[in-house]
Design a protein that fits this description.
21% strand; 112 residues; binds zinc ion; 2 helices; alpha+beta
Length: 112
Amino acid sequence: MCFFDQHRFMCGDWKWGHFRQHCNREYRIGETCGMKLIMHTVPVGQKCKLCEKIDTKVRRRQAEVDRITRWQREGGKFRASIDKSVEIIRSLDMEIYEMSCERNRRLQAVGN
Ligand SMILES: [Zn+2]
């Protein structure tokens, strides 16, 4: 069991950081035994890349919703634009859903 830092992001996700210390199961110089343990937890003052990507998509989706609300106030003039916007929202929803699944998979894959 070799020791590594753990980087913990604001969103609660984490990743392995720097290697810190070998254990006595080390079998070759310069190699780790493959079993990782946490030495220090280093707080990271931001969200992980995946969560930031999700946030970006959520903001983009909100912007589309705002556009539709504005267009709807104008009456029937912007029907084509609204349809297009609805399509964009639908595909953003799918991307957000897939990224959330990816995030859940990572959360469950503890220790790799
Ligand atoms: Zn995250």
